[in-house]
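To: structure subgroup
Subject: Chain for Friday's discussion

All,

I'm putting the inputs and outputs inline so they're searchable in the archive.
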Amino acid sequence: MEEDIRLFLNYISKEKKCSRNTLDAYHNDLSQLSDYIAVVKEKEGPGYNSVELSEDHLASYMQSLKQKSYTVSTIARKIAAARTFLKFMAERGKVNKDLAPRLTAPKVNKPLPTALSVADIQRLLAETARVPSVDARRDQAMLELLYASGLLASELMSLDVEDIDTLHSCINLKGHGGKIRKIPLESRMGKMMREYIDSVRIKLLISDKERALFLNQRGERLTRQGFWQIVQGYATAAGISAKVTPRTIRHSYAVHRLNSGADIHSVQEVLGHAHISTTRAYKQV
């Protein structure tokens, strides 16, 4: 089965454009399935091959997962990986029939998104304005833009200067396959970004070839980990007791926009949610 898993990982890497983290997760989960089936088949006798995989094997595998101290979400992820792999195997004739439907994942009750109050957001943003340093002004622009757009931290850090349209006050966010998602900004935010690009970023810039919007002290693109630490620092300085992360600020954007009467479909479009149910969860917060 290891060779089949290798072919599957190669397929989803090239065809589905999966990230390294996703590939690693699939590899770990499917290796666990392979090891389990190998042990079972060894007990049954020699001559094992993928075609002999049966419903009984999958049923016992699911039972073995439930007997371990895994969380429901972890079990659901492992079963989802196995289902995707089995479908791949069936399409290529490696198993007699598609066994994926025989794997039923437990229902995972997703927790509601956690958002900050408007007061906490105001305290967080005010903290960035306390110090007049270049770094602090950059941090202010980052946090203000995050709260004004609801971007993911990875999306925020991937922005280039050209992605900010200060004339029309919007972000042209590049997505998968070159698709552009337009994210509108208030005119105040567009003006702030123009001031940041002209007066702050230029002081951090070392090479004219660098197009990243947000730079570190070496003049290079700021990393997601670096941004996370910056957010933590300001949250601590502001004395906010709630857990504050870039994703919390994204959630806060969505909740505050909906509470202010924004159309749920417009918020869905800005956040890039594929399903309206994902956005609707914010109305319960």
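Points worth raising on Friday:
The longest helix spans residues 20-44.
DSSP finds twelve helices and three strands in the chain.

D.
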